[in-house]
Amino acid sequence: MAKSKSRVDNRVRELRFAHDEMTQQELANRIGVARQTIIAIEQGKFCPTLESALRIAKAFDVPVDEVFTLSE
C-alpha cells in the first residue's frame, strides 16, 4: 500500500499578527534567518529545521505543536 505524502501546516502568519503585528523581518531577525525563509515557511513552500521551528515557537512563547501541525 502506497504511503501518502505528509504535509506540515503552520500558524506563523496568524501568530505574528497576534503578537503586536510582528513583521516577517522582525521574526527573521529573532530566529536568525532571512525574511525570504519566513515567507516560504508561511506559504508552506519550506519546512523549517527542527532548530528553526523551536526558535519560532520560542519567539511566540508557545509550544512548537501550536505553531506546526502534521496533516496527512
Task: Describe the fold and architecture.
- The chain starts with 6 loop residues before the first strand and ends with a strand.
- It has one domain: Orthogonal Bundle (434 Repressor (Amino-terminal Domain)).
- It has helices at residues 12-18, 24-31, 35-42, 50-60; strands spanning 7-10, 68-71.
- It is built from 4 helices and 2 strands, in the order βααααβ.
- A two-stranded antiparallel sheet has the order 1-2.
- The longest helix is centred in the last third of the chain and has 11 residues, at 50-60.
- By secondary structure, it is mainly alpha-helical.
Question: How does the SSE layout of this entry go?
Answer:
Layout: E1 7-10, H1 12-18, H2 24-31, H3 35-42, H4 50-60, E2 68-71
Antiparallel strand pairs: 1-2
Helix pairs in contact: 2-3
Helix content: 40-55%
What gross morphology would you assign?
globular
User: What is the top-level CATH class?
Assistant: Mainly Alpha
Q: From the coordinates shown, what is the CATH architecture?
A: Orthogonal Bundle
- Distance, first to last CA: 15 Å
The topology string of helices and strands comes to: EHHHHE
Strand content: 5-15%
Based on DSSP secondary structure assignment, what is the total number of beta strands? 2
Total count of helical runs of at least 4 residues = 4
- What is the mean pLDDT? 93
CATH H-level superfamily: lambda repressor-like DNA-binding domains
The name of the CATH topology is: 434 Repressor (Amino-terminal Domain)
Largest beta-sheet details: 2 strands, antiparallel
Can you tell me the residue ranges where pLDDT is under 50 for at least 5 consecutive residues? none
Please state the structural category. Answer: mainly alpha
* Overall tally of structural domains: 1
Strand order of the largest sheet: 1-2
